[in-house]
């Protein structure tokens, strides 16, 4: 997912609110899709393969072996194959294996060309993307900043590669919940790209989509919607109505409808996207599966849990066959399926599936990856719903501490987990601890998200109600 590889953007902020009678809302749903760094042509249906893009992997490994034998490990052909193999492994969701291959590429290029040649910087960029995939956002930010500064010095501020580095840096801010910084940087990139390449250049359109998603992150749904409408109109005219980028933007526009509670509009647009992608890309293409998952989420949000469950089960089975049982997308779908069990009060089934997902994420992505921690939070909510308060509290304390360590005290995911922990304290009669923690959440959300963000308002309402309740109990 630099420009050549796979998108890293299937991480969504958690919808904190399970205690208000809503579902646990997994923090790792498939959308919004950041079309920014995804090459649609690099993704193809693979229904007959044991693993997604297995034939590509096998071919590249054979080519690598021949190139190393004939030309050695430090020749341009070997480097080119390593680059492509790293991209394929990322597309398969095998991020640790991808990192090993990409680090080998980086080390080889450094030995031959040094740190600051174009090829080495391209390899560093790919390394930055695989770090993002593993939730290593601080390391990715440091690397992308270094690449940006090197390219700016070598190529100038308005070169295509420099602008791509700046956009990648903005994406690391977005993944860390630093949405204002991401927004400012995307706006700068868009202004330059409009002037240098034109308003309808694919890169300009890509950054515009990312800017819209940054508005979405901040709860500025009308602004996000307006930008997506403009984007879809332009992409339809420039790329065509059935181009993957146009369809991706439509899917994200449906997301803004969903966020505003406009379920029917979201559902109609999601169905349209799914039907078109099935026809254009195939029923088992990763983009089609992501769109199906988001249609299922739209059913889920309308309380149509059986329909959501059936569609999620289809997606899980197809992703298992196409991508493999432990691909990030497969595990994400399993988590969303577990959440539909949660909605239907099938606590034990939800718990069993969340346990599977947590164990798999820990094994594949590590103990402190965003998806692992989000899964643990949802598992804690299933304990809560079964009245297992102590287990729920212990797991949420772990999650909060890990989020603080990995993402920082002010990250929206950290604050969402703190809010849920505050509810657990409240339900156990630990009112003072609950009020103190919710006060922290409210103060930091007002600072980070703004006073009018829905999560800030929710925190303020809960805090006010709890203080009033405590006052009455004290009288």
Short characterization:
The protein has 475 residues and is mainly alpha-helical.
Secondary structure: elements and pairs:
Elements (H helix, E strand, L loop, with lengths): L53 H18 L4 H16 L3 H19 L4 H16 L3 H19 L4 H16 L3 H18 L5 H16 L3 H18 L5 H16 L3 H18 L5 H16 L3 H18 L5 H16 L3 H19 L4 H16 L3 H18 L5 H16 L3 H18 L5 H21 L1
Helix pairs in contact: 1-2, 2-3, 2-4, 3-4, 4-5, 5-6, 6-7, 7-8, 8-9, 8-10, 9-10, 10-11, 10-12, 11-12, 12-13, 12-14, 13-14, 14-15, 14-16, 15-16, 16-17, 16-18, 17-18, 18-19, 19-20
Measured as a percent range, the helix fraction is over 70%
Q: How is the biggest beta sheet arranged?
A: none
DSSP summary: helix tally? 20
Class from helix and strand fractions: mainly alpha
Order of helices and strands: HHHHHHHHHHHHHHHHHHHH
What is the total tally of β strands? 0
Distance between the termini: 60 Å
Mean pLDDT, to the nearest integer, reads: 87
Q: Tell me, what is the CATH class of the domain at 1-15 and 51-135?
A: Mainly Alpha
């Amino acid at each position: 997912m630099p420009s050549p590889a796979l998108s890293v953007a299937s991480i969504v902020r958690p919808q904190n609110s399970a205690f208000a009678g809503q579902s646990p809302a997994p923090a790792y749903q498939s959308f919004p899709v950041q079309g920014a760094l995804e090459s649609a042509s690099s993704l193809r249906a693979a229904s007959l393969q044991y693993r997604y893009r297995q034939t590509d992997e096998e071919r590249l490994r054979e080519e690598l072996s021949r190139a190393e034998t004939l030309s050695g490990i430090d020749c341009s052909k070997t480097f080119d194959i390593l680059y492509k193999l790293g991209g394929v492994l990322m597309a398969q969701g095998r991020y640790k294996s991808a990192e090993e291959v990409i680090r080998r590429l980086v080390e080889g290029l450094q030995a031959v060309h040094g740190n600051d040649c174009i090829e080495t910087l391209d390899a560093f960029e790919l390394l930055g993307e695989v770090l993002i995939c593993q939730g290593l956002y601080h390391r990715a930010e440091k690397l992308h900043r270094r690449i940006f500064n090197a390219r700016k010095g070598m190529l100038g501020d308005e070169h295509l590669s420099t602008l791509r580095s700046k956009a990648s840096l903005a994406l690391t801010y977005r993944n860390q919940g630093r949405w204002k910084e991401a927004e400012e940087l995307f706006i700068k990139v868009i202004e330059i790209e409009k002037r240098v390449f034109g308003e309808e250049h694919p890169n300009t359109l890509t950054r515009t989509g990312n800017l819209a998603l940054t508005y979405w992150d901040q709860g500025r749904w009308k602004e996000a919607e307006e930008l997506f409408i403009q984007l879809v109109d332009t992409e339809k005219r420039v790329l065509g109505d059935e181009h993957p980028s146009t369809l991706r933007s439509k899917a994200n526009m449906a997301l803004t409808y969903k966020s505003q509670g406009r379920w029917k509009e979201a559902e109609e647009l999601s169905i349209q996207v799914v039907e078109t992608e099935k026809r254009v890309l195939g029923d088992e293409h990763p983009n089609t599966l992501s769109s199906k998952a988001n249609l299922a989420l739209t059913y889920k949000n309308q309380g149509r849990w059986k329909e959501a469950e059936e569609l999620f089960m289809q997606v899980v089975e197809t992703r298992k066959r196409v991508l493999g049982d432990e691909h990030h997308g497969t595990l994400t779908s399993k988590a969303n399926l577990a959440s539909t069990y949660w909605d239907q009060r099938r606590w034990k089934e939800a718990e069993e599936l969340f346990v599977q997902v947590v164990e798999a994420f820990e094994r594949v992505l590590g103990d402190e990856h965003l998806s692992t921690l989000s899964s643990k939070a949802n598992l804690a909510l299933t304990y809560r719903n079964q009245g297992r308060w102590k287990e729920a509290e212990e797991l949420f304390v772990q999650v909060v501490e890990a989020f603080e360590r990995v993402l920082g005290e002010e990250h929206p995911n950290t604050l969402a987990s703190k809010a849920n922990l505050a509810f657990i304290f409240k339900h156990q009669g630990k009112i003072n601890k609950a009020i103190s923690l919710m006060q922290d959440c409210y103060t930091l959300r007002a600072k980070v998200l703004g006073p009018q963000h829905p999560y800030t308002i929710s925190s303020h309402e809960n805090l006010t109600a709890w203080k009033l309740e405590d006052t009455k109990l004290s009288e």
